[in-house]
Amino acid sequence: ARLTKGKSVTFKDVAGCDEEKEELVEIIDFLKNPKKYVEIGARIPKGVLLFGPPGTGKTLLAKAVAGEANVPFFSISGSDFVEMFVGVGASRVRDMFKTAKENAPCIIFIDEIDAVGRQRGAGMGGGHDEREQTLNQLLVEMDGFNANLGIIVMAATNRPDVLDPALLRPGRFDRQITISNPDVTGREAILKVHARNKKFDETVNFGEIA
Fold it and tell me: Where does the record place the AAA+ ATPase domain (predicted)?
């Protein structure tokens, strides 16, 4: 998994999804003060699934959550787990969670989780193919760590319909957030983010472009 540290991306860099940001404020607060939640006995979701069309900023939003909380961000693509050789994907999942536990509080982000989280029994290689073993290992790891450790697993997909129902059960990806295409106001805000530190003619109207 690739590691990003520090506040390289924060909510200031993400525009056009204000409601989605609000839904993630609690996660940021938990990563900043896990003890506060443990003391009052609150249960924080272990997993957050972001789904929506391609290009809506799911990865950027997950990075911004880590940046806002100032915690390490481990990112990996679902396709990185699926190899020809049986056992490699499951071993990568184990290694990833081991590293995350050593760096908690932190965020693990799995992009294109549908590559590994597809409904079991849908593969060509029978019941024991590599992808199913990897998915089983992911479920085991998510069940095996205490949410109070300060690890949040975030994942993104544009195909929520093909995911194995076991991934969406309580204690796994029990918080699901839809990231929609931005409206006109959102598009204008996105243009303004990208226009920062750049010189434009005074006749440029971002509202019209949006």
Answer: 44-183
Same domain flag for 79 and 45: yes
The pTM score is: 0.85
Q: Which residues contact 171 (CB under 8 A, 6 or more apart)?
A: 46, 142, 143
**164 and 195 co-located in one domain:** no
Domain check: are 125 and 199 in the same one?
A: no
Residue spans of beta strands (DSSP E) within 33-130: 47-51, 73-77, 106-111
Split at pLDDT 50, 70, 90, the class of 127 is very low
Domain holding 126, by residue range, is 2-179
Q: What is the pLDDT averaged over residues 65-92?
A: 87
Both tokens assigned to 141: 């790891």
Co-location of 187 and 153 in the same domain: no
How does the average pLDDT of the chain come out, rounded? 84
Q: Which of 124, 125, 109, 37 is nearest to 76 (CA)?
A: 109
Q: Is 187 exposed, middle or buried (0-12, 13-18, 19+ CB in 10 A)?
A: middle
Q: Residue 202: in which H helix or E strand, if any? A: none
Tell me how far apart the alpha carbons of residues 151 and 143 are, in angstroms, rounded to a whole number.
12
